[in-house]
Amino acid sequence: MVEGFETRGWVRFPFDPVLADWVAHARPRARAALDDPALAHWHDCDGTWFVGVDALDNDAQGRVGGSDPLSGQAMRFIADHLGMLPLHRAQVSVLWPGYPRPRRGEGAAAFRYRQTRDAAHVDGLKPTGPDRRRKVQECHAWILGLPLTEAGPDAAPLVVWEGSHRIIRAALAAALADHPRAGWADVDVTDAYQAARREVFDTCRRVPLPARPGEAYVIHRHALHGVAPWAASADAGPDGRMIAYFRPELPGGVVQWIDPS
To answer: 10 Å Cβ neighbour count for 39?
Structure first.
């Protein structure tokens, strides 16, 4: 499993009753977030996506709604091989039929990219300013996805480009190499990132990762990933396709983030 993660940049875990129990506690709290006026700004894409950043009211050990701390196979894998960190409030990402529609303020080119390339991205490299230039702004350690609802495999699953983490990491490391480490967070990596992304599209296999409540997947922090469109034939309940995501940040900033370990 470790070798597969290092090669592919992702690993999926089968049904785990310990995790299923956590989901049973977390799901009502995630549903409540959808109607929280303080989180209303996360409803986007003409009502087809609740972005839900920091929307789940869990604590640093993952307790939510009276649950035990978050545990199970996926968490053991993280603790043994990637390093455990205090957990932030999880993102609650919910998709419904009709996704994708344009996000607020999204131009035609960005929307086409959402439609045709699943809005593929590496977490933490956010476009800013009128020219949408990118720096490493958030240094996530890993990405843990925990499905909260039953949904068909074509109901806007997360997708990942297999092996992309190696291409992305090498390109960004090269872009940063000539700059003092203390200033890496201020380095514009846009050109290197875009070139690496094109290489990924040309050479890496796109893999959808549908999963059920009680299952989990872990994605490498440098892996290119996105969300597929909701297929016309896809099915899900009224809660849509709901996933909780944890992405704790590394204490060592960009220097630790670019490290291949």
So the answer is: 18
What pTM value is reported for the model? 0.96
Calculate the alpha carbon distances from 148 to 37, 98, 102, 242, 247 in Å.
Answer: 22, 20, 25, 5, 17
Residue 257 lies in a domain: no
Integer distance in angstroms from the first to the last C-alpha of the chain?
16
Radius of gyration of the chain (CA): 18
Contact 90, 246 (CB under 8 A): yes
How many domains does the chain contain in total?
1
**What is the number of other CB atoms lying within 10 angstroms of the CB of residue 105?**
7
Residues spanned by the domain of 9:
2-249
Give me the CATH number covering residue 237.
2.60.120
> Residue 116 and residue 113: Cα distance in Å, rounded?
5
Alpha-carbon distance values, 167 to 52, 110, 194, 252 (Å): 29, 23, 11, 22
Contacts of 193 (CB under 8 A, 6+ apart): 122, 125, 134, 168, 171, 172, 175
| CB of 241 closer than 8 Å to CB of 98 | no
Walk along the chain (261 residues) and give the pLDDT tens digit of each residue.
Answer: 788 899 999 999 999 999 999 999 999 999 999 999 999 999 999 999 999 999 999 999 999 999 999 999 999 999 999 999 999 999 999 999 999 999 999 999 999 999 999 999 999 998 888 888 999 999 999 999 999 999 999 999 999 999 999 999 999 999 999 999 999 999 999 999 999 999 999 999 999 999 999 999 999 999 999 999 999 999 999 999 999 999 999 999 999 999 987
